[in-house]
Amino acid sequence: MIQTTQTPEKKEIRSLNLQEIADFLQQHGEKAFRAKQIYEWIWKKTVTDFNLMTNLSVKVRDLLSEYFVFQTLTPITSQRSTDGTIKTAFRLHDGHIIESVLIPSRSRTTVCVSSQVGCNLACAFCATGKLKMQRNLTAAEIFDQVAWVNKQSFAEYGHKLTNIVYMGMGEPLLNYDNVLQSIHYITSDEGLGMSPQRITVSTSGIAKQIMKLADDDIKFELAISLHTAINNVRSELMPINKTQNLGLLSEAITYFHKKTGKRITYEYLMLRGVNDGLADAKKLAKFSKIAPCKVNLIEFNDTDSQFKASDVEIMQKFADFLETKNMIVNIRRSKGKDIDAACGQLANKNLDTKE
Ligand code: SAH
Ligand code: SF4
Fold this sequence. Notes:
Structural class: alpha/beta
CATH topology of the largest domain: TIM Barrel
Largest sheet: 10 strands, mixed
Bound molecules: S-adenosyl-L-homocysteine, iron/sulfur cluster
Number of strands: 14
């Protein structure tokens, strides 16, 4: 990606929508239809340099450069795991640092993107939760992670991304508009044209925002980080549960399913002696009756916390019990642990969040 020097008074062109670009062109005596061409260069061809927009006259390119910039991500380090996972740290235009992860597997190639710099929700098991939230990412900054890692995937593994998960740093539903806007650019025909069914947004469970997703009739998949179906345990693990308790969450999930017809995915982190017993499995089975769902049992990744991962046999027993209740269950072994790239480990360990 080409870095353009930033002048404070110049605006990020990608904060404008199509109409706003057309208005700008008209105000400067240029043809409004050029906006569509510019829009395509930006979102479909992922070009970040006005000089590369070759179907525009030099005059129009100069006009754009006079008023606008691209606030691109600058990749600063990429670390490769023995399992093929690659974690990349990017510097944002204002110096903050975020991370994205490319996860190749036999059947798919996934990027895990960040939605915020840090996270304020302070879940007890999560390294990102220890970083104070600095700011929301813009739609363009989220989009850039996908576009960049897509090229990386092609260069490293010879094929493009098949899946996108919003499971990096941050709580996506607390950056609602930018997350949905980024998905629009990733999925629309004027953008990357990827299928929304290949995108999963993971949330700690903000009830109001889950209902808003239903009202907005989203086409992408929703994952909820449940981790336990017992209220007081959940509040210990995830402080957000003190205001968004399981009662509110289940109302939101019921509403979401009724409106969208979609199945929910529950993320369930297996923590030794905390949420991995038979009583916990029973509670989960009962909770999950509110809507069609599947459960991912996730291996805990060490994050210098008081928690330990559940034993493999315990995880299997837990899964077996849920299956006797006719639930769809997957056990998810983590990837990229040796480079701190696994879920919950993104924390810019060797880098300051602002340089
Ligand atoms: N904030 C959102 C999305 C980012 S976290 C959310 O909480 O859902 C993505 C996933 O990583 C969540 O399911 C989260 O619970 C999980 N996670 C956090 N810390 C983890 C850890 N140490 N090991 C495994 N998964 C973890
Ligand atoms: Fe934030 Fe998600 Fe980490 Fe919780 S698990 S602190 S919500 S990023």
